[in-house]
């Protein structure tokens, strides 16, 4: 009788462990299915994003091509001459440089005239303005 009792207890323990293992596998399987569904959703979202990015890229690419073609068309027109543009810019820069130089010369000439009127000679003026004596004489004679 004891043997039967031990045997039935062993069989029930085995059945209980099989049941628990089955239940655990069922939980894991259910959890895996949930994760698979989530991964599939994420994959779908990534694919949608990629599609949208590809559309935006192709749109940008078309716009850039269009801008490039427009630029080429403009450059190929008869009235586009980069050399003339550069020449014009250089002329404007030269004019501005000359204006600055003229303003500086005029200022030096004014200072020289004021000092001459105050009774200084060319050597003293040259020393005072940190210039050469002949330079002072030339500025005075050329601007008078």
Name the features:
mainly alpha, 144 residues, 4 helices, 2 domains, single chain
Walk me through this protein's architecture.
- This protein is mainly α and 144 residues long.
- The protein folds into 2 domains: 12-80; 81-144.
- It has helices at residues 2-76, 82-117, 122-129, 133-143.
- Helix 2 packs across helix 4 (133-143) and helix 3 crosses helix 4.
- The radius of gyration is 48 Å and the shape is elongated.
- The model has no long low-confidence stretch (mean pLDDT 79).
Query: How many domains in all?
Result: 2
Parts with pLDDT < 50 across at least 5 consecutive residues: none
The fraction of residues assigned to DSSP E strands is under 5%
Straight-line N-to-C gap? 144 Å
Largest sheet: none
What number is the mean pLDDT?
79
Q: By helix and strand content, what is the structural category?
A: mainly alpha
Rg over alpha carbons: 48 Å
Total count of strands: 0
InterPro entries: DUF6115
Biased composition (Basic and acidic residues): 94-107
Region (Disordered): 85-107
Pfam families: DUF6115
How would you concisely characterize the structure shown here?
The protein is mostly helical and 144 residues long. The chain has helices spanning 2-76, 82-117, 122-129, 133-143.
């Amino acid at each position: 009788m004891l043997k039967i009792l031990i045997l039935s207890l062993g069989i029930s323990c085995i059945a209980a462990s099989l049941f628990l293992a089955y239940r655990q596998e069922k939980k894991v399987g259910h959890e895996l299915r949930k994760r698979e569904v989530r991964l599939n959703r994420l994959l779908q979202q990534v694919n949608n994003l990629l599609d949208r990015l590809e559309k935006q890229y192709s749109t940008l690419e078309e716009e850039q091509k269009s801008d490039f073609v427009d630029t080429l068309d403009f450059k190929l027109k008869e009235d586009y001459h980069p050399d003339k543009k550069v020449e014009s810019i250089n002329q404007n820069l030269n004019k501005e440089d000359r204006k600055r130089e003229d303003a500086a010369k005029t200022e030096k000439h004014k200072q020289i005239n004021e000092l001459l009127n105050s009774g200084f000679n060319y050597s003293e003026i040259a020393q005072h303005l940190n210039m050469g004596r002949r330079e002072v004489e030339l500025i005075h004679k050329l601007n008078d």
